[in-house]
Design goal:
InterPro entries: Kinase-like_dom_sf (IPR011009), Plant_MAPKKK (IPR052751), Prot_kinase_dom (IPR000719), Ser/Thr_kinase_AS (IPR008271). This protein has about 180 residues and is mainly alpha-helical. The chain is built from 7 helices and 6 strands; from the N terminus they run αββββαααββααα.
């Protein structure tokens, strides 16, 4: 795994999603998978170029500015936390305070908002990809509705409970329904 990350980092690529479910066993070798969230640091994000705009004006600008802070060392941190969790079976206390988590949380709060308010044709997914409205069936749509109506201080709590504390489908459904109940006008 270290060789795979070393190779990526030499090419100035950041995987951004190193976790146990993305490490595959191939014979006696481990392989890194799922390059869907990878960022190429060779390509300069538009937000770091000189611009006349002092502040980001769209949600896309905010996401791009956050992505500009990502470094190869985040992959090394995620790999270390993954190994620690595999060895002990316990999530590390540092995973809750890492800069990676902070960026992911900030991007999540921004990305789940409606991209086109009039008509709501496209949204940004958790990973920043375009998601057609036809794919927004109940749990996703409920999360969208929630984040639109929840105050800023409530969002990290929902993010924590939904994405990190549990992977049990029933618990996620319960969180989603309670979130929607809170958000109803």
């Amino acid at each position: 795994m270290c060789k795979a990350l070393k190779y990526l980092h030499e090419k100035l690529l950041v995987h951004r999603d190193v976790k146990a479910s993305n490490i595959m066993l191939y014979g006696t070798y481990f392989k890194l998978a799922d390059f869907g969230t990878m960022i190429d640091l060779n390509v300069q994000p538009e937000s770091t170029k000189i611009s006349r705009k002092p502040k980001p004006t769209t949600k896309d600008d905010v996401v791009t500015r956050n992505l500009a802070k990502i470094k190869p060392s985040f992959d090394v941190l995620e790999l270390g936390l993954t190994f620690a969790r595999l060895m002990t079976g316990v999530r590390s206390q540092y995973s809750d305070y890492s800069e990676v988590r902070e960026l992911n949380e900030r991007n999540w709060a921004c990305n789940v908002r409606k991209r086109k308010l009039a008509g709501g044709k496209e949204y940004l997914s958790k990973r920043g990809e375009n998601m057609p409205a036809k794919m927004l069936k109940p749990p996703r749509m409920c999360r969208m509705i929630c984040v639109e109506r929840l105050p800023e201080y409530e969002r990290p709590k929902i993010f924590n409970s939904y994405w990190t504390e549990t992977n049990i489908l029933d618990v996620k459904k319960q969180l989603t329904s309670s979130c929607v109940d809170i958000c109803r006008p």
